[in-house]
Amino acid sequence: MVVHSSNQKLVYSNVNLRDVTHIARYHTEAFPDCLAIAQADSLIIGRSDEILKLHIRTVPLHEQPRRICHLDSVGMFGVVTIQLGAAGDAMDPCFLRLMDDQLLETVASFAFAPNENPGSVVAMRFAGDDQQYLVVGTGVVLPDEEEPTKGRVLVFKAVDRSLQLVAELKIKGCAYKMASLRGKLVAGVNNKVQLYRWARRDDDGGCELVSECGHHGHILALHLAARGEFALVGDLMRSVSLLAYRPLDGALEEIARDYNAHWMSAVAMLGD
């Protein structure tokens, strides 16, 4: 423990070392203002640094935030929100808010259709296109359906502090999670994992999402992470599975799986 004086008060700071037998000041040209710390089987020369404090700023949205991503190309956040209690007995309306990442003020909004629930949002660049896009996956929630049977994948771009919808793809379910895989969009849609490529239309020169391949065998593909050519899938009940994208075959192939029954709440790829 380091004891020092601050504003005429004694302050006690814990040091992350245990079982110290002796301590002394140690100062040389190579190690200025250090401490020599003896333990049972080692000698440590080091400096006690201040703990860096995290500065927190709270910005009231007056809505419930559900998903967030960052568009570094334009310095914006994409935030999916729900206006709780705004629709009475019907499903509360959902919005995509474009927020300045410095001022944290909303500069543009997009209202989703009635009963349309955004399940995922990701900022990504497609292969062959330098533009950074904001992609939102949704599902239409109806009271007589256990799981959504239809939804959309919406592709936006942020231009001059505004949102422009550049592509829309109707899907058979809800896109619960999405990620970028080799410049393509991989999405967990109900019990399937789908891979979409960004293709240019011949008629007007615009771009659209085209389904390239998919992988079945899941109960609900709720969570997804991608790295390199691999996609890690977290299932509602069937734990995790690892898929590999085979571009020559145009297929997603399962190469590993945990066969235990685990209810996943999140998955991540930490490194190669």
Q: If you compute it from the alpha carbons, what radius of gyration comes out, rounded to the nearest whole angstrom?
A: 25 Å
**Main sheet: strands, sense, barrel:** 4 strands, antiparallel
Structural class: mainly beta
Beta-strand residue fraction: over 45%
Order of helices and strands: EEEEEEEEEEEEEEEEEEEEE
Question: Key features?
Answer:
272 residues; mainly beta; 21 strands
Produce the secondary structure layout:
Elements (H helix, E strand, L loop, with lengths): L1 E5 L2 E5 L6 E7 L7 E6 L3 E4 L17 E8 L4 E7 L11 E7 L5 E6 L4 E10 L6 E9 L10 E9 L2 E10 L3 E7 L2 E6 L2 E9 L6 E9 L5 E7 L2 E6 L4 E7 L4 E7 L15
Antiparallel strand pairs: 1-2, 3-4, 4-5, 6-7, 7-8, 8-9, 10-11, 11-12, 12-13, 14-15, 15-16, 16-17, 18-19, 19-20, 20-21
How would you sum up this structure, described in words?
Helices cover about 0% and strands about 55% of the residues. It is built from no helices and 21 strands. Strands 6-7-8-9 form a four-stranded antiparallel β-sheet, with no helix packed on it. The chain has a four-stranded antiparallel β-sheet with strand order 10-11-12-13, with no helix packed on it. A four-stranded antiparallel β-sheet has the order 14-15-16-17, with no helix packed on it. Strand 6 and strand 7 (about 75-80) form a beta hairpin. It is extended and about 75 Å long. The mean pLDDT is about 90.
